[in-house]
Amino acid sequence: MLENIELAASNMPWLFSAFFFVFGACVGSFLNVCIYRIPEGKSIISPPSHCKCGAKIKWHDNIPILSWFILKGRARCCHEPFSFRYPFVETLCAVVFACIWNFFPMAQAFAYMFFFALMVVVSFIDIDCMELPDLLTVGGCVAGVVVSFLVPQIHVKDAMEGAPFLFYAIKSALISVIGIAVSTGFLYWFRLLAEYVFKREAMGEGDVVLIGCIGAFCGWQGAIFAIFGGSLIGSLIMIPIIIWFRIFVRRKKIMETIPYGPWLAIGAVVYLFVQKYVDFYFEGIKAIFF
């Protein structure tokens, strides 16, 4: 069956790209629900999507991406504005899902779509609440090990060649566990050093667990890249914004703290697409010293 799907995808790549674009948009719509309900401890399934005024949202007003523009950003029932974040998350997921499908083999693609969806939810919850729920971070670590066992190709590139599936599955799961241990240990000591230097809390414990989740899916190399790559990306984006506000808006303090979780997530997602080069770099370092 999988071979038939791959054959069809190779013959009609545009159709499958369009399908995963739409699929990603639908997943993004569900993730919006998760982002708002999980921090409040509410069910992500029931009740169905509803407006702030309590009215149930009709299906034709709940079309991913399009509905926000059709309604001009205002609810049909009460005409109250609703956030542009809804179509933004849906479009983001649509584009990235389509890219993942075209960039990776099928089994890896599904694993990375799940990982990306998890990163989207934790990032926006961290932005909103400055916290990372254990349900997503600790649960993400467990999910990473399970997914690594079921899809060993995400850690073992030559999986399914020669040896039995169970051999590669166990090897991949062990790499995932090592990724959790190395990444959380590294960031924990990095956190202590930063607190000593800056005399204040540099990051929360949730960030340490989140990097473990990233290590479970991306291995320790991906987690290390996420720490430094995410920090670099965050600096390149936030420093110009801070300078702009201080010069032109004349505000010395923009926000008390900047969440680190979203930058870790961005670094992890970037790693998915450049992992071949990052892993080659780490292999070169390993060859020099060992």
Automatic annotation (TrEMBL):
Coiled-coil region(s): none
Subcellular localization: Cell membrane
Keyword Signal: no
UniProt keyword Acetylation present: no
Membrane topology: Multi-pass membrane protein
Ranges that cross the membrane: 12-36, 110-128, 135-154, 166-190, 223-245, 257-274
The family this protein is said to belong to: Belongs to the peptidase A24 family.
Annotated Prepilin peptidase A24 N-terminal domain residues: 22-101
Pfam families registered for this protein in UniProt: A24_N_bact, Peptidase_A24
Source species: Intestinicryptomonas porci
Domain Prepilin type IV endopeptidase peptidase: 113-239
Alphabetical UniProt keywords: Cell membrane, Membrane, Transmembrane, Transmembrane helix
The protein, known as: Prepilin peptidase
Lineage: superkingdom: Bacteria
Primary location group: membrane
InterPro entries per UniProt: Prepilin_IV_endopep_pep (IPR000045), Prepilin_pept_A24_N (IPR010627), Prepilin_peptidase/N-MTase (IPR050882)
Gene3D superfamilies: 1.20.120.1220
